[in-house]
Amino acid sequence: MRTLLLALTSVLLLSSPSQAGIFDVSAVLTFGGPFGLTTSAIGSASGVQSVGGGIAQVPGMTFSGSVPLPTPQFGLTDLTIMAAVLGPGTLSGPGGPLGIQGALIPRFGNFPGGSLPLTPLGGGGVSTSLLSGIFKVTLQGSTWKTGAVTAFGTGAAPATAMATGGDNRTPGGAGSVSFVTASTFIFSAIPSTHPATSMLTLTYTLAAPEPTLTLAALVAALVLAGRVGRLRD
Q1: 3-class DSSP assignment, residue 98
Q2: 195 and 86, same structural domain?
Q3: Shared domain check, 55 and 148
Q4: Regarding beta strands 95-96 and 175-187, do their DSSP bridges make them parallel or antiparallel, or are they unpaired?
Q5: Is residue 94 within 8 Å of residue 143, measured between CB atoms?
Q6: How far is CA 148 from CA 84, 202, 223, in A?
Q7: pLDDT at site 112
Q8: Which of 186, 188, 83, 200 is nearest to 127 (CA)?
């Protein structure tokens, strides 16, 4: 009997569901910037980890976008993002820093006028650039979080930007989690402060079903117990 119990215990340990499985992940980034600049990116990866309320692995994503100014300001006609990158990296359920690697490029007609690093967006902190010797532009960013975020602006419409994230994964890590971040873009020469929010949504699905105890496993335990018993005899 003791041999049988030991065999059953071994099979149960081998076949019980894992709390942190290996997942496939799909990601959608919705980027928000000044003057109504919005763009998006998608990404995916296999063999990543996920835990509800904990680990959230982020695949790498690349995105671009552009927006014309409603009314050109001091020759500034449009803003462009070229091949900015987010990830790969790791966030936890509450959130954390993961900055965008790339820059906001103002254009004066057909000519670029410098660049503003986007790293504070998602990474936290501040970046400042003097564009074409005229525009001082500042980005005040924040890290990703699963709660609510708000950014306030002046001289811009809308004057407030809000977003809310949340972690809807199971304790084992399957399901979706949304991270949000708030930012403000300050154009001192215009002058105006533009609020914006961005959202990163990750959806995890098990790469393969987690093993469970089945009739076949019970039969295997009985066979194992019989073999161990015969060896002892």
Answers
A1: coil
A2: yes
A3: yes
A4: unpaired
A5: no
A6: 25, 17, 56
A7: 72
A8: 186
Question: What does 164-217 look like in DSSP terms, one character per residue?
Answer: E-EE---TTS-EEEEEEEEEEEEETTTTEEEEEEEEEEEEEEESSPPP---HHH
DSSP single-letter state for residue 18: P
Burial 165-194 (b: 16+ CB within 10 A, else e): bebebeebbbbbbbbbbbbbbbbeebebbb
- Same structural domain, 31 and 12: no
Domain shared by 92 and 188, yes or no: yes
Residues 6+ apart with CB under 8 A from 9: none
Contact assessment for residue 93 and residue 132, using Cβ atoms and an 8 Å cutoff: no
Q: What's the rounded mean pLDDT across residues 103-109?
A: 84
Instruction: Tell me, yes or no, whether 136 and 223 share the same domain.
Output: no
Residues 226 and 130 in one domain: no
pTM (global) more than 0.85 = no
Confidence band for 192, pLDDT divided at 50, 70 and 90 = confident
Q: Where are the beta strands (DSSP E) in the chain?
A: 22-32, 38-49, 56-58, 61-73, 76-86, 89-91, 95-96, 103-108, 111-112, 116-117, 124-131, 135-145, 148-152, 160-164, 166-167, 175-187, 192-206
Cβ contact 55:40 at 8 Å: no
Range of the domain at 7: 1-16+211-233
